[in-house]
Design goal:
The complex is a heterodimer of chains A (191) and B (198). Chain A has 191 residues and is mainly alpha-helical. Chain A is 66% helix and 0% strand. Chain A is built from 8 helices and no strands. In chain A, helix 3 packs across helix 4. Chain A starts with 12 loop residues before the first helix and ends with a helix. Chain B has 2 domains: 42 residues, no CATH class; 124 residues. Chain B starts with a helix and ends in a 5-residue tail after the last helix. The chains are: A mainly alpha (191), B mainly alpha (198). Chains A and B meet through helix 2, helix 3, helix 5 and helix 8 of A and helix 1, helix 3 and helix 4 of B.
Chain lengths: 191, 198
């Protein structure tokens, strides 16, 4: 049981989870505050648009809250949230079909990016290429996509990804290899 | 034999040095695959940036989650309250039913006492199950659902239909239970007093 006299900020992960389980006011809010950005980014990388990523992020945290009793602390909170996030996103993709209608934000909508240090022409080229790559990633098979996203953008080890996906390290490496090979084919298709 | 996917990934990520894999120097196909793998890793990494949402978005997301969690917690409390009510209600009902059955059985089986001349006020006070039920209520226990149920059930028992002699008291009947009936009464009471774990 978390000590109610200790500020929530000072609690380690295990104690924070205990505080959440004890319904200590603000405890789960702190979990959300600490992890909302990477969870949102994970969701965004799966669905490619802000609206869905926002809804999915909420869903991830709500499922995490429901699953607090089952969280045994064998992995970090971040890994646990990623596992939930990947499941939520893959379920969403299954429900919507292999791809979503709106894969990426229009470049003009990215008004909050800090792009002052880069010439406009280079920025446009970079953004277009990035948009093509994101669209190609969105067409990858689900497990390959999840593996590529977790490995490339969330810097998870193969072991951690295996834990998230309920797989083996060998299978994760094979999926990563095939994801990159398919990404190459998809980018070549688009020219 | 060519390098497998895991070997190529380890080489592309730098987990293994190329010099540790002599095959690579001899196989153009594996070298090409490794090169393509590295190119695609760079291409994917170049698309890393997620458009940053509005600065107010993060607090908005936190608020949405907070409200959703609060709603969830409220719904859970509602279920817990209903379950707690059921947990209390089911044993109370079982006890009430058991008591009603015992009272019904023992009064039905008990021999009819001879009416005393001039009447006995204490006997007359417990003439029927309905009267017994009324007494229970008169003892200030009228807020207890289980006792109300016993009273109702007892009152509902039609003395004529089950051939109960009117001047039999429940107390008298219990005192005169035979061995089997006492054991059954003991078993039922123990069953009801033991936590059910519902």
């Amino acid at each position: 049981m978390a000590d109610a006299d200790v500020p929530l900020d000072a609690l380690d992960e295990k104690a924070l989870i205990e505080a959440c389980r004890a319904n200590q006011p603000g405890a789960f809010d702190l979990v959300v505050e600490r992890h909302r950005r990477p969870v949102y980014q994970l969701c965004y990388r799966f669905v490619g648009n802000h609206e869905d990523a926002s809804d999915l992020s909420q869903d991830v945290f709500l499922r995490a809250y429901r699953g607090l009793a089952g969280f045994r602390g064998q992995s970090s909170i971040a890994t646990w949230l990623y596992r939930i996030g990947v499941n939520v996103c893959l379920n969403k993709l299954s429900a919507k079909g292999s791809t979503l209608g709106k894969l990426t934000e229009p470049i003009a909508d990215r008004q909050f990016e800090d792009t002052h240090a880069e010439p406009a022409s280079e920025r446009v080229l970079r953004d277009e290429r990035a948009a093509r790559v994101r669209a190609a990633i969105a067409r990858l098979p689900r497990t390959q996509r999840a593996t590529l996203i977790l490995r490339t953008y969330h810097e998870m080890s193969h072991q951690e990804i295996a834990g998230v996906l309920g797989s083996t390290v060998g299978a994760v490496k094979a999926n990563f290899f095939h994801a990159l090979a398919n990404l190459k084919k998809l980018l070549e298709e688009k020219g | 034999m060519h390098l497998n996917a895991a070997d190529l990934v380890d080489l592309a990520e730098g987990a293994r040095s190329e010099s540790s894999v002599p095959h690579l120097a001899q196989c153009a196909q594996c070298r090409r695959q490794l090169l393509e793998l590295r190119d695609m890793m760079d291409a994917a990494a170049g698309a890393a940036q997620v458009p940053e949402p509005s600065p107010v978005f993060w607090d908005h997301l936190s608020r949405r989650v907070h409200l959703a969690v609060a709603e969830e917690a409220g719904a859970r409390r509602g279920w817990r309250d209903r379950l707690a009510w059921r947990r209390g209600f089911i044993p109370a009902s079982a006890v009430a039913l058991a008591v009603a059955l015992i009272v019904g059985v023992v009064t039905w089986r008990a021999p009819a006492p001879q009416p005393a001349a001039g009447g006995n006020p204490s006997t007359e006070a417990a003439l029927s199950p309905a009267a017994a039920g009324a007494d229970l209520l008169d003892d200030g226990a009228d807020d207890d659902d289980s006792l109300i149920l016993v009273a109702d059930l007892s009152a509902a028992a039609d003395a004529d239909e089950v051939n109960i002699e009117p001047a039999v008291s429940a107390e008298h009947a219990v005192i005169h239970l035979n061995g089997d009936e006492l054991r059954e009464l003991q078993r039922l009471l123990q069953q009801e007093l033991t936590p059910s774990g519902v």
